[in-house]
Specification:
single chain; alpha+beta; five-stranded mixed beta sheet; four-stranded antiparallel beta sheet; 10 helices; 51% helix
Amino acid sequence: MRSTFTKIFLSFWLSEFLILICTIFILVRQFESNEAVYTSVFAMMHSNAQLSLKAYELGGCEALAAVPNTFPLEKPSPYDQPAILIDPAGIPLCQQVDMSVYGASVEKLRKDGFLLGERHGPWYLEGMEVKNAQGQKYFYLMRNTFPKEIYIPYREILPRILIGLIVSVLVTFFATMVITRPIGSLREAARQLAAGNLRARAKWPKGKANRKTGDELWGLVYDFNDMADRLESLVDAQKLLLRDVSHELRSPLARLSVALELAREEAQPGMEEQLDRIERETERLNSLIGQLLSLSHLESTTRLPDKQPVSLERLVSDLLPDMDYEAQRRNCAVRWAKNAQPGSRGDSQRPVMGSPELLGRAVENVIRNAIAYTAEGTAVEIQLFDETRFGEQFAVLQVKDQGPGVPEASLRSIFRPFYRMDLSRQRSTGGYGVGLAITERAVRLHGGVVAARNAAEGGLLVEMRLPVSDKVAG
C-alpha cells in the first residue's frame, strides 16, 4: 500500500466503517438483551390478558372471542391457536382443550407466575397469571409456532445500513481525490523538472485564481511553480551569459592568433617552445568555446529543423580513420566489431532520421572520450546493431573502452555539462566535461537515449539507442 491516495482513502473509510460497526453492535446488543425481549413479551401478554379477562367477566365467551388473541411471529400456521384463558381451578374458558398437554405448564405458571419460551413440539408457550378486581388468579397462556429463523427486530434498517456504506465509500473516494489531486500534479511536475524539462509546471485547477491561498496543498503547488519559474529564469540567464561570453571571447582569440603568427616572424632564437605552448593553449581555449556554443545551441533547440536519413554505419566508417589516428598517438587502437552481434540483431542497416552533423559530433565525442581513458596497448571497441523493444526498432551504437570505469553513483552525472568526477583525471586527459553533454542533448533531439554502464570485464560502455526509419539513406 504505497499510494498516498490508497492510504488516505482506507484511513477515512475504515474510520467511518468502524463507527458504523460500533453503532450496529450497540443496536444488536440492545435488541438481543433478555431484559428488552422479556419486557416486550410481558407487556403484550399483560395487556391481552387484562383485555381477555375483562371481556369474559363482562360478556362471557362471546365477548372473549371478539378479543384478538392469535399472534404469529412470521406468518399464520396451522399450529397457531387462540390464547387460552384458564380459571383459578385450572379449567380453560370457552375452549375445548386437552389440559393434559398443558397441565405441567399451568402448574409452572401457578408456581412462578410466568412462563417464557417453553418448547412444545412444533409450537412454544408463553404465559402469565392475571388477577381480576376481586383478586382471583387467572392464567393466560399463548400458543404460537416456534420461529424457523431468528427474528431480527432491526432487519428494517439493514437496507439503510447498506446505503450508508455505499454513500460512505463514494464520499470518502471523492474527498480523498480532492485531497490528493494537488499531490499527484506536483509529483508529475517534479519528475519532468528532474528530467530536465524546466518548463514543467504543476497543473492549477481551472477557475481558481493563480495566487497564494490558505489551502496548504495548493499553496505548496503555487510555491513549487514559483520555484520552477525562478529556476528556469536563472538557468536561462546562465545559458545566455555563457553564450555571450563565448561569443565575446572569439574576437580576442582571433586577434591573439594573428599576434602569435606575427610574433613567430620576429621571435628571438629559443622562443619557439614558449610560442608553441601559447598556440596549444589558444587552440584548447578555442575548442572549448566552440563546444560551449554548440552546447548552448542544443540547449535552446527543441526539435530538428530538417531531418534526413542518416546511415550510422557510414557515419562511423567516415569517423574511423581520424579516430584511429588519434588513438595511435596514445598507443592504442579503435576496432569496429561489425560481426560481434550475430543472429537476429545483426548489423544495423536501417537509417536514422536526423542531422548527420549532430549525430557525427555525438558519436565522435563518445569515441574520443573512450580513446582518452582507455589503457595504453588496448583497443576501443565499437558495435552497431539493431534491437527491437516493445514492438519498436532501434539502432544501438556501443562504444567500450578498457579504462578504469566510472563509479556507479556518477554514471548518470557524466552527461551533465562541466561535471568533473576527478579533477586530476580531467587535466591529464584534457577534457572539460562538455563533450558527453553535447552527445546526450544531440541524441535526445533525435528521440533517442544515451546511457553508460561499467562493463563486467572492466572499462566503461556507452550506449546510444536511436529509433530507426524505413527511408533509405542517401
